[in-house]
């Protein structure tokens, strides 16, 4: 093991050997895991009440892997959907007992012997599906996108860029792409994916019409969209803004229905929140290719694209963070600070 990690391991060991330094886990900790790291896990499906702060062995990287010290995790709706459903978890190759969350930002603490592109000390943002909410995680950079965090970018902001930005990018650069001067409807434009989509489309000179709740109309306007409050008769509200050329629906599928009524072809409509909404396709978010992810985080680092953080929670209060996320208590991304 490299010295940084050895020191870290010693620190962790000392911490766990301290009398009274026990886990808040409801489950007893197996003897062989008596020290290592803290990890949020769940052993049954349900809401945040199933989350347990447990102790686990410090993971060791294989020759092709790197060990990342997790510093920040951002919450995505898919996290709590996976936590609540066996079927959803199985779709992502997860089973009980499981860890939690996907989007992480942190620092590489150890590299496997065959890894050449990454080094100890690199600040990175990546995916750790079902293993994000823990102090350390092993990542295989050949099978999942890993991006350098630009020097000037806050780690918490970096943690927000992965799923939401990739999904927005794949939609707006893919089927929901509109040309300069054409109109893209983003239904649910004040959410994480919606905000990225507005900004990406505006960079192409696309006119964006975005729906949001009354209190969030100002936010979508500040990103360059024409804002419409959702609820009520959406067709009537959007009629004067027609024709709509493309749709990204991040909400209830109504954006697709109304977008088609107001001129959009079905093949240029996407819903990421309702499967097969009025015949529209979705986005299989690509979390494997590094180049697009690096491009996106570089745009954020350069200040060309904004990230809105609604709240930051300490690691020990991760369960509260999920309760707040599900309740829609904060506007903007919720970040859990680990390190
Ligand atoms: N590849 C994929 O399939 C993929 C990837 C990422 C996300 N998703 C899904 O996409 C959805 C959005 O994700 P996100 O990360 O952007 O979530 P988010 O940040 O929680 O945003 C959700 C947004 O939906 C808006 N909203 C709620 N009810 C609405 C309604 N009736 N009409 C219009 N807008 C409404 C909210 O607006 P206000 O805050 O203004 O109320 C909120 O901003 C989630 O269902 C998520 O699971 C799918």
Task: Fill in the keyword field for this structure.
single chain, 339 residues, alpha/beta, Quinone Oxidoreductase, Chain A, domain 1, Rossmann fold, 2 domains, five-stranded parallel sheet, 22% strand, disordered N terminus, binds NADP nicotinamide-adenine-dinucleotide phosphate
What does this protein structure show overall?
- By secondary structure, this protein is α/β, with parallel strands linked by helices.
- The chain folds into two domains: 3-160 and 307-337, Medium-chain alcohol dehydrogenases, catalytic domain (Quinone Oxidoreductase, Chain A, domain 1); 164-279, Rossmann fold (3-Layer(aba) Sandwich).
- Helix content is 29%, strand content 22%.
- The chain is built from eleven helices and 15 strands.
- The strands form three sheets. Strands 3, 5, 6, 7, 8, 14 and 15 form a seven-stranded mixed β-sheet that branches. Strands 11-10-9-12-13 form a five-stranded parallel β-sheet, with helices on both faces.
- Strand 12 (246-249), helix 9 (254-261) and strand 13 form a beta-alpha-beta unit.
- The longest helix is centred in the N-terminal third of the chain and has 15 residues, at 3-17.
- The radius of gyration is 21 Å and the shape is globular.
- Mean pLDDT is 91; it is low at 1-34.
- Bound molecules: NADP nicotinamide-adenine-dinucleotide phosphate.
- The site of NADP nicotinamide-adenine-dinucleotide phosphate (NAP) has 27 residues, from helix 2, helix 5, helix 6 and strand 10.
């Amino acid at each position: 093991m490299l010295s940084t990690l050895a020191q870290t391991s010693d620190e962790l060991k000392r911490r766990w050997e301290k009398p009274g330094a026990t886990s808040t886990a409801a489950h007893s900790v197996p003897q062989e895991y008596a020290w290592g790291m803290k990890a949020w896990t769940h052993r049954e499906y349900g809401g945040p009440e199933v989350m347990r702060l447990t102790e686990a062995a410090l993971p060791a990287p294989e020759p092709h892997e790197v060990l990342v010290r997790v510093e920040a995790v951002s919450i995505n709706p898919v996290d709590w959907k996976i936590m609540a459903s066996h079927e959803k978890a199985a779709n992502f190759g997860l089973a009980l007992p499981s860890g939690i969350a996907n989007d992480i930002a942190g620092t590489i603490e150890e590299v496997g012997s065959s890894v050449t592109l990454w080094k100890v000390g690199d600040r990175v943002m990546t995916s750790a599906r079902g293993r994000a909410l823990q102090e350390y995680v092993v990542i295989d950079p050949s099978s999942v996108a890993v991006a350098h965090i630009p020097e000037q970018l806050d780690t918490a902001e970096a943690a927000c860029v992965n799923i939401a930005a990739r999904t927005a990018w794949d939609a707006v650069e893919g089927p929901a792409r509109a040309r300069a001067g054409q109109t893209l409807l983003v239904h649910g434009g004040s959410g994480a994916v919606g905000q990225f989509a507005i900004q990406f489309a505006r960079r192409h000179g696309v006119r964006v019409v975005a729906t949001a709740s009354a209190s969030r109309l100002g936010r979508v306007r500040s990103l360059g969209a024409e804002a419409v409050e959702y609820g009520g008769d959406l067709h009537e509200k959007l009629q004067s803004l027609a024709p709509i050329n493309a749709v990204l629906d991040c909400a209830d599928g109504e954006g697709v229905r109304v977008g088609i009524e107001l001129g959009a072809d079905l093949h240029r409509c996407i819903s990421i929140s309702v499967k097969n909404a009025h015949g529209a396709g979705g986005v299989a978010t690509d979390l494997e290719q590094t180049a697009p992810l690096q491009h996106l985080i570089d745009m954020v680092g350069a200040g060309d694209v904004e990230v809105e953080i609604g709240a930051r929670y300490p690691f020990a209060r991760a369960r509260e963070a999920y309760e707040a996320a599900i309740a829609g208590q904060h506007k903007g991304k919720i970040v859990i600070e680990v390190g």
